[in-house]
Amino acid sequence: MDLVPALQEPLKKVLGPATAKVMAEHLGLHTVGDLLHHYPRRYEERGQLTHLADLPMDEHVTVVAQVADARLHTFASSRAPRGKGQRLEVTITDGSGRLQLVFFGAGVHKPHKELLPGTRAMFAGKVSVFNRRLQLAHPAYELLRGDGEESVETWAGALIPLYPATAKLESWKIGKAVQTVLPSAQEAVDPLPESLREGRGLVSLPEALLKIHRPHTKADIADARARLKWDEAFVLQVALARRRHADAQLPAVARRPEPDGILAAFDARLPFTLTEGQQKVSQEIFDDLATEHPMHRLLQGEVGSGKTMVALRAMLAVVDAGGQAALLAPTEVLAQQHHRSVTEMMGELAEGGMLGGAEHATKVVLLTGSMGAAARRQALLDLATGEAGLVIGTHALIEDKVQFHDLGLVVVDEQHRFGVEQRDALRGKGKQPPHLLVMTATPIPRTVAMTVFGDLETSVLDQLPAGRSPIASHVVPAADKPHFLARAWERVREEVANGHQAYVVCPRIGDSADEAAAADAKKAGKSAEDDAEKRPPLAVLDVAEQLARGPLNGLRVEVLHGRMHPDDKDAVMRRFAAGETDVLVATTVIEVGVNVPNATAMVIMDADRFGVSQLHQLRGRVGRGAAPGLCLLVTEMPEASPARQRLNAVAATLDGFELSRIDLEQRREGDVLGQAQSGARSSLRVLAVIEDEEIIAEAREEAARIVAADPELTSLPGLRTALDALLDDEREQYLEKG
């Protein structure tokens, strides 16, 4: 169905080509409808009318007064050394008192022409004190021609919308443009079914648009926001519900494990019993695999909760049923790690077609971009013939050349690093859509899961396997208390003396290309956060050298970072895993999936440069064996800074879900959604994923009900229109590919 023409009108026609061009380029607004959905960020109150005699300090006030006199002064300053600086001082009076207004620089010309003695006007601004006298600096003003009392009242009491603006287009210009198109809001087609709107007491869409852009009272704003939040939550949930509905219609091959096949043989080999959580989640997955439509499941688990074990059992179940399973990892280091740990866990079950292989064995192949040609050819052949039941790899798995004999299950590790296009390309490798299991160790609050991964069913692993040890975390304030840092290195030496190993993590590598990038980044964004921010972040190569010469002298220290040759990286990881290295100084390449149970300590340098969930991920690399883990967060940030509060939060809890909430509240959800949408911009404007948990949950239920009854939405043309409008092409594709 077509969009309503009035809202589809290009801004060029309504506002003229110059303004429309800036709006399109800088704000992504192209039509009248886009502009109406560009909501104010906040509202300024001009303040009630005040008498000059009783002006409050530091408050926004609006006064009606007459200009008594105006003088232009010139002065010398650092910006205008030759006495070219200009300052306009205007004295106003309302009969009860006098007040000085000041305007500086280029801002003096207009008021100098307009604010002549005797002129009456309204002035709005913040009261401050200068030279023991009250003044308003650069106030907004409106000249009063004639004596319209009413205009005084309306101007003073108004809530002025402040819009998200750009340097090229100030908020008040956007406000004027909105004023021009606001009459079209009457033609906005309401996406919410009437029963839903009335049942929840929400205002109509045209009314909500008028109230959000031109509120008379704060209650107007609240009404409008409540309504527009529902729109966003509901339209998005309908899109996801339709997607789930469409997926449920797709055909897939049901995969049921044989009672005495490779899965049973693998379970019999396990030296431990699965946790209750692992058994429950495995059962959910097996139930999904046994159906005739593709499974789409998100498996969230705390760092170290045994997700890989659950995924491996699902993969073996598919091999039992005659299919193949692929595990996709975001980096080569991780793919190699997974390959090593899977073949170790499977033992002779991974030696299919070889002497000494078990009766039910299969072949487990690794496929990465840096493999030699011969090994690669063999791996591709094993996949095409079906000889290899399991393949573990990076994005290289998705290249056109890779052919599967019968791909039944795709497991994607660390979803948030994996673009939608890649998942889609892999899906196309099966004769019918394969089942999909997405794993993440970044706990996602329930509402975000419903919003971003709303097309996936969710399973959560929240128990740690037996034998995992607790991790103690502490913030080390290196600037305030340097002796704490010295003690941190002593602790590392103590761990090594007890036969354990340690990681030291730095934000940067420290080679020349890295330096240049850091310098550019520094020029680009200067932050005021103390001196700690001013120096470049600590680098692996520098720190490793200083430690080896200084506090960790005599220990075996090695480095690991992303720019090393893959073979060198693998060799370093092998030596560390084998216990031949005491301390590994690394970048975040070790963030995910690296599993060395003997590593018990981690020191994170410049910890304030990492995000909350990243710190939580990194910390999960220690305490993976029987000995307790220790994580030290080193920072030079001052005690009161937000960065320190963030680190204190990480040190205070091991609960990833709690941390992901803190993380979200600090970063705003745009980032989270932005990442997950492979770069499509977040379409959430008034909905806050964390605060509006209830609305999202209710909208999901309503959406599921409506889509089940009418998947094509034939009876709800307004909702279809909103879907087409809200799901711009990029986002539509994102949902298509999921």
Describe this entry's structure for a reader.
- The structure is a single chain.
- The chain has 738 residues and is an alpha/beta fold.
- 42% of the residues lie in helices and 18% in strands.
- The chain has 29 helices and 21 strands.
- The strands form four sheets. The protein has a seven-stranded parallel sheet with strand order 11-12-10-13-14-9-15, sandwiched between helices.
- The protein is globular and about 100 Å long.
Keywords:
about 750 residues; alpha/beta; 6-stranded parallel sheet; 21 strands
How are the secondary structure elements laid out?
Elements: H1 5-8, H2 11-15, H3 17-27, H4 32-36, E1 42-45, E2 60-75, E3 85-93, E4 98-104, H5 109-114, E5 120-130, E6 133-137, E7 140-143, H6 149-157, E8 159-162, H7 171-181, H8 194-199, H9 205-213, H10 218-249, H11 262-269, H12 276-289, E9 296-301, H13 307-320, E10 324-328, H14 332-346, E11 363-367, H15 373-385, E12 388-393, E13 407-413, H16 420-427, E14 435-440, H17 446-452, E15 457-461, E16 471-477, H18 482-497, E17 501-505, H19 512-524, H20 530-534, H21 540-549, E18 557-560, H22 566-577, E19 583-586, E20 599-604, H23 612-619, E21 629-635, H24 642-652, H25 656-667, H26 669-676, H27 693-709, H28 717-726, H29 729-737
Helix pairs in contact: 9-10, 10-27, 10-28, 11-13, 12-13, 17-27
